[in-house]
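FAQ: What does the model actually see?

It sees only this:
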Amino acid sequence: MKAVLIIFAFSTLLTSANADIIYALGTSNTNCKNAAQAYTKKLGEILPQHEFINGGVDGDKPKWMLNRLKQTLENIPNIKLVIFEPGPNEPNKEENLAGAETVLLFLKSINMKTIYVSNGVIQNKENAAALAEKYGATYYGPWTMNVPVDREHRQYDMQGPGHMTVKGCELWAQFMAPVISQALENK
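And it is asked to produce this:
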């Protein structure tokens, strides 16, 4: 909890009152576990007119994300877009999706521009796209979309490819950047 408060205080000091801030809410995928938040760092390099805050937490589940999201929005009121990646940490798919829907419903209720990033372990692309549409979010696709499944891009730290390497996270950022620009332009 202290770490979260320190991050909020530090983020508040760094952010300008006029900056468009993008908050990436998610799991270890979002914070690029063992890859030093390379995803949001690279997004900041590609889109320097925006500030990015990485709200990825290892092992997080959608049912826990809503409170963190609300705290972040209270402490950093000039967030213009949320990238939401609920991850696969909740093994019960129905519970994972219910938690994700709660977050998406909240974001819709406050008219927050949202990009929804799915995980193939939890739902297929068609169902994920329908969920995003239901809540007025832009659908990105699965977090690993178009990232090669090789040791240069994936850590192989789990059963299978696992988390992305720095290079994989940076590639994800390159694919995400135009989606962010488009989502911010849409009213």
